[in-house]
Amino acid sequence: MSGDQKACAGISRRDFVTGAAVTLASVGAGAAALAPLMDAEEIPTADEFIQKHYRRLTPADKKEIFARLEREIEKQYGKKATICDPKPIDGVEFAYVLNIGRCIGCRRCVYACMKENNQSRDPQIQYIRVMKLKKGSVDLETSVHDYPPEEAADPNYFYMPVQCQQCRNPPCVKVCPVKATWKEKDGIIVIDYNWCIGCRYCEAACPYHARRFNWSKPGLSSEDLNPDMGYLSNRPRYMGVMEKCTFCLHRTREGRYPACLEVCPTGARKFGNLRDPDSEVRKILENERVYVLKQDLGTLPKFYYVFAK
Amino acid sequence: MIQFFVHGFISTFRGSRTYWLWVTFLLAVSLIGLNAWARQLAHGLATSGMGDEVSWGMYIANFVFLVGMAAAAVMMVIPAYIFKDREMHKIVVLSELFAVAAMVMCILFVTVDLGRPDRIWHMVPRLGYFNWPGSMLTWDVLVLNGYLLLNLYVCFYVLYSRFHGRKPKPALYIPVVFLAIGWAFSIHTTTAFLFQGLGGRPFWNSGLIAPRFLASAFAAGPSFMILVFLFLRKSGAITFNDQVIGRIRVIITVSLLINIFFAGSELFAEFYSDSKHVVHFSHLFGLHGESLLAPWIWTALGLNVAAAILLLSPARRNQGVLIVACMMIIVGIWTEKGLGFVIPAFIPTTLGDFVQYVPSVNELLVCVGVWAFGLLVYTLMLKGAIPIINREE
User: Fold this and answer.
1) If pLDDT is split at 50, 70 and 90, which confidence band does A127 have?
2) Residues 6+ positions from B101 with CB-CB distance below 8 Å
3) Residues 114-133 of B with CB under 8 A from A
4) Element (H, E) at A161
5) Closest CA in chain A for residue B34
6) Amino acid A6: pLDDT
7) What percentage of chain B has pLDDT greater than the value 90?
8) Is the ipTM of this complex over 0.85?
9) Which residues contact B320 (CB under 8 A, 6 or more apart)?
10) B212 within 8 A of B241, measured Cβ to Cβ
């Protein structure tokens, strides 16, 4: 007790003035240091800030949020957009088969995907990466993905597009600390862009380089904006969150094909319901020699590769 | 209790010219870091050198290193509390305070790495949506914050009792000290599990990562504490005899040798089997095409081995030599665990692409800022605590 009194009495005028001056100067300098926040490119609104996880939203919440997002999109892009939220269909599990024998590496799928899914054009975000491989091996380390367009369709090489493999045992979902990414009933791995905290653990965990991060504010012009949007798929993304291929769920859950399949000029891409015994994908899986990428990791992809005519 | 904090607060305003220069310097650098972080928040993580290929960089590297530094406090706590080393007991609280400061830096390094720090509340159990026990990152949040609280409690209780001229009641803090000893191992183990559990990253997917983390931490952390202790003794702030330094030196030497042994064991398995996965190691060491990492890892290995030789030579008893060896270990292990551990797992990418990573200036400023802030916190805590430690019992 007496010790403190001594200590308190011991503050000299000089100490006090110095202390006050230092404190004031630090507060001022702190404010100055934060000045760059004044030109922040994206500031979350209060509604966005308190928004709950997608799976905890009531139908009424969703209605309100979708309407709000549509308003915001119209304001930002000057274009009317609709946000749908199709549910997984009972008895449907999607699978993709890619015929390497037919792929010519033209990258039409890469660009159709971008157009459909409203990815940032500047910087460019692509979900599909086409690997150009020497015949005789599937060695990824000697592959190239940045070959110029005129080097497509070279008979001495084969081409292997890689995108999200929609694993049955997805490492990205397991590691997410906030359950911002999960596997839907039809097997599609989705992300809640309003819940992701941007830690990029999923990007480190994914063995297929399928996930993309918005390192800056997505740059998308209103001409490029696709107004038919799904909440869990191609609606515009925020700065600082992850995104990925969703097998175009806003199309495929309504009976259409993914954009990458529709554009493919060689018919190398096949898509369908794994649980339907008459589906095209089932026929291929039962009759052709298929393989999956990095089978040893036990991720159990639903994206199959096949060497066929 | 208010008196206790007021006393500590006032103590931080008393100091020599050097002290003021040091504090002003740290404050200025912290503010430069804050400024850089504000720029990153405004324009996104594109202001860093990271990308979709190398998606974790300097922030996570520093985080990993500092978790180790925090855990290493245990190497001073064990001699003090389990082996009842009286001299060590005098200064053990300084290591526990460093654990607190290191924990603060860890949390800041994770925060600056987030794309959306405004959503950090999603990580709060119940309020958010906590993926526990599935995600190792949720475990890490729990153990790191727990370790911070345990150390804060022990430091606070011991200092507070002393402040009132009382002997701390063993029942009120010894169980917490023992819990903190176990907990220290858990923080670095969990942080290792964060990496070693990823099957898609063969460079990390090794059961040796956790033991390596602990060994390297127990070399680098006590090295840093030796420097702090010697500096404080020289400046007349604290007194202790040379036995303490000798004891910590033995801990550092053993840990360093174990660390080198572990690293060697891992390198043998990779290079001898010469499987596909060795490519990350060959790239790291510059044996597979151009590598920006190679000069760093060779330097780190060189520093570790040279420090081990110094610590085994008779010159180890010379204080100057010891200081040099400690500095070599800190720099060597920082490099080994940062650039040599976090980044090579991303090169080549999972699709075989060799993309190099160079941190941006803004990113480096944020890093330096977090370090300065952590050291500032530590300096101020020391300044508040030392007068209490020096009171007669």
Assistant:
1) very high
2) B374, B375, B377, B378, B381
3) 114-120, 122-123, 128-131
4) strand A157-162
5) A33
6) 43
7) 89
8) yes
9) none
10) no
